[in-house]
Amino acid sequence: MYEGVLPGDASLGDDALRRAQRRRMWGFWAMALGSFMAILDIQIVASSINEIRAGLSASIDEIQWVQTSYLVAEVIAIPLSGYLSRMLSTRIYFVISAIGFTLASVACASSWSLGSMVVFRVLQGLLGGGMIPTAFATMFIMFPDQKSRAMPQVMTGMLTMSASSLGPSIGGYVTDALSWHWLFLLNLGPGIVCAWAVWSLVDIDKPQPQMFKRFDLWGLLFMSMFLGGLEYTLDDGPRNDWFSDDSVAICAVMASVGGVLFFWRAFSAAHPIVDLRSFRDRNFAVTSLVSTMLGMSMFTLLYLTPVFLGQVSGYNPLQIGEVMMVQGGTMFLSAPLVGRLQMKLDPRLVITIGLLLIAAGTFLNTGLTADWGYAQFVLPQMLRGAGFVCSFIPLTGLALGTLPASEVHNASGLFNVTRNLGGALGLAVINTLINHRTWLHWQQLAESTRLSRAPVREALGNMRELLQPSLGDASQAGSIGMLAQQVQLQAATMTYADMYQLLAWSVVASMPLLLLLQKPRGASPAPAGH
């Protein structure tokens, strides 16, 4: 099934082998670029959502569809990519995805209404989602042995992790310097280069036209109901008080029914749209579970920190981007070191180090106050950036590195979708808890700010004197409003500290799962003292 020139092809001379290796490497980097673009577009609109809302004349509730539509489409496309890449061939499927993603990006920049934007974002997600797992799968096919795969695996992991972190930063800079339209037009040049390079340089397998005849339409329908309904429920549930909203309740029922039918179809059909047999492999099953829990922490932290900085610290999108850039920059700098570590140490130990760094960086945030800003976030962001790279790069190797080449495409889609679903689940839980904890802290603070307490009356008197020159007789009402605002900020700060603590403990809770992982064959033994 898999063709083309692979490492160790003895039929080629040294010069021809080197040319083939260079060709293979450049083709792979083009695929990694496409994967980076697709992941970047998940978060690039996050810091500019208000500017997009103004440009499309949408309400605060409606504009959330710019994010939701992309996520729902992408989570459906990722597991489907394994079947399509085998049916069409890796090269043809990736080129179609890259060209379609680029055209959809241009269409997003040209959107004239919220409806048109949502349609184009769906197309973006469906086409971009296929590039992410295909790039990962191709890496394990092009570079089958651990030594030749070391550098591509490190670079791919670095690009994947940093794309999510750099998205809000790049979005803030681009919107501030140009306009929100350029968030999508940025994809034009890289998209064209990516499609051309993959078409010219990548040829590892051939189409399997017989798969057209046995395409499982029912399986596709059930999977779309399950994953699409689940993603929508988790994304919109916290904003709409969960099942009190008709659309959330309908999608929850659709996800439940679709899930039952999808798993029935996956285990009963002769040629299912998604093959779940990869979960028989213990390492793949455990790493997928760890990936889900890491996705919960990563995507939630990428959401939580900008929201705190915007709501409590009063940062603008550009300032928020500068804080988030610290994590992305640390990922770039630490990736080469992680690559060397995983070649010398047991990958399970490297993952453990990564989880400890993430937990430590997140625990540091539990002491935050309303005065926290860039300086206080630097160290936690650096620790988390290094930790995510340490965790995800060897985790991907353990998940896909020992599977047969014929299963890698399908397994890559499954592995990537676990991370995305983990992120959706984490955001749903955190957003729900934020509402409850904010109300709880506000009630507790309200008890301590009663007017009957002397310190409160003294503080109000000081505020009234401060406001007297500008507000005159309205200074008393103004002082009460100022006190209420301070109480609200303090309640929000205490709530975010609670969320950081919960996320830190969730990372710690995932560590025992590593004991279930089997040591990979051929892994270097850990040096003495480790």
Largest sheet: none
Uncertain stretches:
1-8, 522-530
Strand content: under 5%
- CATH fold annotation of the domain at 1-214: Growth Hormone, Chain: A
CATH superfamily of the domain at 1-214, called what?
A: MFS general substrate transporter like domains
User: What's the Cα radius of gyration?
Assistant: 25 Å
Query: How far apart are the first and last residues' alpha carbons, in Å?
Result: 42 Å
Encode the helix/strand succession as letters.
HHHHHHHHHHHHHHHHHHH
Question: How much helix, percentage-wise, in residues?
Answer: over 70%
Number of helices, counting only DSSP H or I runs of 4 residues or more? 19
Mean pLDDT: 76
Number of strands: 0
The secondary structure category is mainly alpha
| Global morphology | globular
Description:
The protein is an all-alpha fold and 530 residues long. Among the domains are: 1-214, MFS general substrate transporter like domains (Growth Hormone, Chain: A, Up-down Bundle); 216-272; 440-493, no CATH class. It is built from 19 helices and no strands. It has helices at residues 14-43, 49-56, 60-63, 65-88, 90-109, 114-142, 146-177, 182-185, 188-201, 210-213, 217-236, 246-268, 282-311, 317-344, 347-364, 374-400, 405-448, 454-471, 475-510. Helix 13 packs parallel to helix 17. The longest helix has 44 residues, at 405-448. The chain starts with 13 loop residues before the first helix and ends in a 20-residue tail after the last helix.
